[in-house]
Amino acid sequence: MGSKVSASTVFIVSLNLIFFVLVSSQTPTPMCPQDLSPCEGETTPTLPLTPSTRCCQRFQDLSDIDTAVCLCQILKSKRSMIPSYISLNVVASIFLLNCGRNYTNYNCV
Known about the structure:
Elements: H1 2-25, H2 53-57, H3 64-77, H4 88-98
Helix pairs in contact: 3-4
């Protein structure tokens, strides 16, 4: 009887340790920048986010893929500002390339 209790206790403790290691090893993903005023496209009506130096700095803490995801979220919210014949992927790739980021295969859908 005692061996069954200790075996199940060891199993539960081991399982808890595995979950603890998995949860604590994940780093939080940085959030999309909230203040995008330096990015607002005043000179280019088809590009609601202008990749200026100050704008690109807003995304400096994000990886290339996180920046692409963030840009897609922003562009989707501003879809009415972009002509329908222009793909969100094209706008995002232009922005990423102008900010010196690697274009990723992320698809704005």
